[in-house]
Amino acid sequence: MKHILKKTGSLFFMLLLLSVRTLMAQQNHEESSHSHANHPPHGGQIKEVGKYQIEMVTDLYLKKDQLSFYLFTSNLVPISIDGISGTVTIEYKNGSTTTDTLLANGDDYFVAQLGNKEPFTCTIKLQEEEKVVIAVFSVSELDLKTNSVYTCSMHPEIVQNRPGKCPKCGMELIATKKEIKKEEENHGGHNH
């Protein structure tokens, strides 16, 4: 009888361990899925429109190409912009409006220029053959104050507002001097 109880106890323990591992694996998978949805690859805003996920990145530190628009599949795999054209209409807080053609930059994203550093709403219209996709993004004063401050040491044109990996080479992005200075001010310049 003792032998049967011992085997039953061992079997119960193994089943319990297996259940815990399965639950942990499911939780890790869910967290991984949520992290993709909550963390756009370049640190910008992302919108789901038709078959696309479109990410807009605003970078006021650049003298030109302050807006970048990246196209992805639903699971955030980059899409080539070959054969796609588009326009952007920007309406600023002061009521002024500009419309420009989106310019291809490389093979996976478009860029556009900002006329000033005010909050704005922009509407992008992408056309691929007969299909038209429209997405609207808004940038508030708060968004403008939290500009991109992380960059790639190998590709300084890659700049975003949170840590991550460079989309070109996969290296970790590093904090720029502005961000380091801000962190020192937040900690009173003391090491903890």
Structural notes for this entry:
27% of the residues lie in helices and 33% in strands. The protein has 192 residues and is α+β, with helices and mostly antiparallel strands. It has 2 domains: 45-146, Immunoglobulin-like, CATH 2.60.40; 148-192, no CATH class. The strands form 3 sheets. A 5-stranded antiparallel sheet has the order 1-2-3-7-6, with no helix packed on it. The chain has a 4-stranded antiparallel sheet with strand order 5-4-8-9. The chain has a 3-stranded antiparallel sheet with strand order 11-10-12. Strand 1 and strand 2 (52-58) form a beta hairpin. The N and C termini lie far apart (60 Å).
Into how many domains do the coordinates divide?
2
CATH topology of the largest domain: Immunoglobulin-like
Derived structural class: alpha+beta
**What's the level 1 CATH class of the largest domain?**
Mainly Beta
Shape, per Cα inertia axes: elongated
Give me the Rg, rounded: 23 Å
- The multimeric state of the shown protein is single chain
Q: Count every helix, treating DSSP H or I runs of 4 or more residues as helices.
A: 3
Distance between the termini: 60 Å
Helix content: 25-40%
Binned strand content: 25-35%
